[in-house]
Amino acid sequence: MDDPSHLVNEHTIKQALKSNEFRLYYQPKVDLTTGKITGAEALIRWEHPEYGLMPPGQFIPEAESSGLIIPIGDWVLKTACYQVREWREKGLFPIIMSVNLSVRQFYQPDLIDRVRDILEETGIDPGCLEMEITESMMMDIDVANEVLRELKAMGVQISLDDFGKGYSSLHYLKNLPIDKIKIDQSFIQNCTQDNNDATLVKTMIVMAHQLNFEVVAEGVEQKGHVAFLQRNLCNEAQGFLFSKPVPAQEFVRKMHIVDRVIEEHGLPSNVTYKNWMEEELQMARQELLETVRKQQGMILKFVKRDGKFIHTLCDGELLYRMGLTPEHVVGREMKEFLPNEVAEEKTAYYEKAWSGSKRVTYEAEVNGIHYISSLRPISRGGEIIEVIGSSVDITDRKKTEEALRKSESKYRFIADNITDLIKVINRKGIVEYASPSHEKMLGYTSDGYFGEQIFDFIHPEDSERVYNKFKEMVATKQVQRANYRYKHIDGSWVDVEARGTPVLGQNNEMTHAVIVVRDQAKF
């Protein structure tokens, strides 16, 4: 057949749109752990009345240059969303539909409105739609970031396609609100024969997981690719080994065949799950070490040996502000690095925690630094094996309290009349301070929140939405607002509105957030 590319121009593409000659084909994405289809990528074809099925490479460049990619993109998005709805109505499990965005589409002023209108028209859950962008679209990072955040705010997922082919800055990448990266097929094709490609793929997977991205491998065509990707904990894969892009009806017919590919050619399921568990454990350990190292407060652990409390871990910026180092503390008991009277006072709290008290909280001062600590015993087989503690610097608060005491009347007025709930949480969502007003509104004392995850007190139906707002605040370093239900000590729920204000450290990253909460019924 002759190459029909010379016949492709603005007029013929317009005619194709008018005559409904474009078709969508769908290529499955497969979970490399379960082997099940989790999504599909929508890929356009032109069913030319004379030349048959034309791949996108023969007409998309002309559509881009002529601007017709905009109506074509609208058609693709709407058709793909209607397909999701049709599959859902037929009782198929929810599939995440991936749609590619072109540069022109991405930077069109009304993209967000177009996407919102199509989602409303088709009635699908925004979480079932995934927009695939490329690194080349990051030419204007500020505009790109804004567009992506608006899409994310709608609930749409974002995937970075052809990862590794472009030249995107890792600095920008860590701040982009994306959910997945797709490793370009050029790296996958030879990853089982070429050590350089293998190393690059492994590195991309590790880096993506460290940034909390999922990873999709494109171009999986060989049986060996599956085992390699599973061993290196890639999340999903797509490629001809599973299926080439096919029409919607054939996609459904082939689902049971695709679902067996991992079982037939992949690692045994128990090996895959073991690898993932080891990865989760390793990441948890790494996260703990990084948290301890960067902690503005202090984290410690101790055990009881021969009647003595010996520290097995102690680190964090607060420790250094006290004039101490881990070497002063680890492997020692308190009287070896603290004055006797201070050591004796703190030993009483250590003893209380070791005896089984679920939470022991106390304030102390070392070398002019005031701090508050919370201790929690860890048990195994009914016996306490260690106690873990966390401390935060309250020196500034103490200074503020002293200043307030010098204006007692003003202090009393503020203390007696404040109605807002105020919390200080770290970037992990752990409460480090809660105002006394919590007891009046919710029944819990301030100490009842210290060291707890803030999301544990939020209604389960609201928790994920609030957590996403929190993640957005960490990423954007901008004030966020949310309405949700807060747990009362009597088991009821209180409708509140909250405002989160990020607190930035020296590296301009969010270290803490101040959460101000109001009872909606009173305002």
TrEMBL record:
Transmembrane segments: none annotated. Pfam families: EAL (PF00563), PAS_3 (PF08447), PAS_4 (PF08448). InterPro entries: Biofilm_reg_signaling, EAL_dom, EAL_sf, PAS, PAS-like_dom_sf, PAS_4, PAS_fold_3. SUPFAM superfamilies: EAL domain-like, PYP-like sensor domain (PAS domain). PROSITE patterns: EAL, PAS. Residues 6-259 form the EAL domain. It comes from the Bacteria. SMART domains: EAL, PAS. Residues 407-477 form the PAS domain. PANTHER family: BIOFILM ARCHITECTURE MAINTENANCE PROTEIN MBAA, DIGUANYLATE CYCLASE DGCP. This is EAL domain-containing protein.
